[in-house]
Amino acid sequence: MIDLHTHSTQSDGTNTPKELIRLAVKQKLKAIALTDHDTIAGLKEAAREAKKLNIIFIPGIEMELEYPDGEFHMLGLGITKPDKLKTWIEKLKSIRQERNKKMIKIMKKAGIKVTMARLRKIAGGKIIAKPHFAELLVKAGKVKTVAEAFALYLRRGMPFYVEKENVSFEKAIKAIHKASGRAVLAHPRSLRLEWDDLAAFIRRLKGMGLDGVEVFHPKCPSELSARLETLAQQENLLMTAGSDFHGKFYPDRKLSYTGSGKRIPYRFVLPFLQK
Predict the structure, then answer these.
(1) pLDDT tens digits, residue range 26-58?
(2) Which one of 16, 162, 234, 244 counts the least CB within 10 Å of its CB?
(3) Could you tell me the residue ranges of all domains in the chain?
């Protein structure tokens, strides 16, 4: 079993890269990718631990892209030249910091005791993301769980939500390819498109250089996964699958498991071994 979509403390997960690899080995995975948001900071640590424990490691990243509604995320998988992403990542970091400052300002006006220092302590890594704001709201007694924090305060349209400036698909895919990675559309359901529109959108992205589609994800119903598999085969797109594991922030997500409760088979990692 394998997992091609996970997060560590370097972005918005709660396991360090080393802990993530050890957990994967404990749960008998044969391969795992680390795809932290907007950073490659955890890749070296994860790769070292993976080599030590004899598990296949796929270096990756996850980026959020420009999109009018819903969320448009892309995975960069099999990145063999991560240094090529350094300048790009600094730009993403700057964009995220501006969003975080705006969120802090709004929360302070609402009477929440929030500082960048408190958020950094919660985050543990260099990236501060919305789950860290959610954890702060839990600690402040505003909500009981991270899920409740998102539902009441942090999702689109809620009081503390701030739109983050994002980058274009064209620029992001160019950066991933420059780093010798493969660009994969993550959790397509988050685009909030009906099937015909989604299929047309994926075909258009393929024409612009998209390499693959994440066909299995906890938020992806089995019927949609089946349709995505068929479309990927028709369009000769790479298929991937991942749990989108974040640790305790999303306790319902387990390494190597999809939303249907089935474990992710080894076949999904094969294209990266043949690369």
Answers:
(1) 999 999 999 999 899 999 999 999 999 999 999
(2) 234
(3) 2-83+176-273, 90-154
